[in-house]
């Protein structure tokens, strides 16, 4: 019998993009679950009208929220997306082929990012391999509050699928800066256990290294002004994360 797949999405105020995400999953999944953390726009209405299963859950942090979404699924095989992501037609075909041929425990796929209206090709943001299709018996999301990832059990091997998960990262710099402030604050919380000396050293050295790595070593400069803006803002996020962590450490 052909295995069944659950598509899972976490969302909050994603009315502009949730329909595209759900539609792409419906091409491969036998159900789509949307875990919403308090949307005040049309996210829930759109999801409901498209036939998604809706679960409302206050935000737990990115990793725990995604793990919760996995646990809400009816089927063990999971495709996990953010609301601003969608499956390319090629990846949809590959996933359907895999369903027919027999699903493996975990797959890596390429993540392609659109930034300020342009598809990014360099800076480490182009076709990074990520695990998004997996058997929940073989692994799941970690508990990281930000920059979460799927952790697989020892011995579980991944198979790479052709095609891409497409990601509309940010429409403009203002949107990116707003999200940076959220990510940096969450990242600072994770760093509270680090010593003050280590945090000060990282504050001094990590931001410039991040810029050099993204813009020069990973050739972000070849993306033109978008590559410069992206490298600069990711560098700012790195600096802000350690600056906030030092502030939290100083006040404890």
Could you explain the architecture of this structure?
42% of the residues lie in helices and 26% in strands. With 252 residues, it is α/β, with parallel strands linked by helices. It has two domains: 5-170, Alpha-Beta Complex (Spore Coat Polysaccharide Biosynthesis Protein SpsA, Chain A), CATH 3.90.550; 173-250, no CATH class. The longest helix is centred in the C-terminal third of the chain and has 27 residues, at 224-250.
In short:
By secondary structure, this protein is α/β, with parallel strands linked by helices. The chain has helices spanning 18-26, 43-49, 62-72, 89-101, 173-190, 196-217, 224-250, and strands at residues 5-11, 31-36, 53-56, 77-82, 85-87, 106-115, 118-119, 126-135, 139-141, 150-152, 159-170. It has seven helices and eleven strands.
């Amino acid at each position: 019998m052909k295995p069944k797949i659950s598509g899972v999405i976490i969302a909050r105020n994603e009315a502009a993009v949730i329909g595209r995400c759900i539609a792409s999953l419906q091409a491969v999944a036998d159900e789509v679950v949307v875990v919403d953390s308090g949307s005040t726009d049309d996210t829930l209405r759109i999801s409901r009208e498209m036939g998604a299963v809706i679960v409302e859950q206050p935000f737990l942090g990115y990793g725990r929220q995604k793990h919760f979404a996995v646990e809400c699924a009816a089927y063990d095989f999971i495709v996990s997306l953010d609301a601003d992501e969608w499956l390319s037609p090629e990846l949809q075909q590959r996933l359907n082929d895999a369903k027919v041929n027999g699903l493996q425990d975990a797959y890596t796929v390429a993540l392609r990012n659109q930034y300020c209206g342009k598809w990014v090709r360099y800076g480490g943001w182009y076709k990074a391999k990520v695990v998004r299709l997996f058997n929940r018996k073989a692994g799941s999301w970690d508990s990281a509050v930000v920059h979460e990832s799927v952790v697989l059990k020892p011995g579980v091997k991944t198979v790479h699928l052709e095609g891409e998960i497409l990601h509309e990262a940010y429409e403009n710099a203002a949107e990116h800066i707003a999200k940076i402030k959220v990510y940096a604050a969450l990242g600072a919380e994770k760093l509270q256990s680090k010593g003050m000396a280590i945090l000060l050293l990282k504050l001094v050295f990590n931001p410039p290294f991040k810029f050099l790595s993204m813009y020069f070593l990973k050739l972000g400069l070849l993306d033109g002004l978008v590559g410069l803006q992206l490298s600069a803002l990711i560098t700012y996020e790195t600096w802000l994360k350690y600056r906030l962590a030092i502030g939290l450490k100083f006040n404890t």
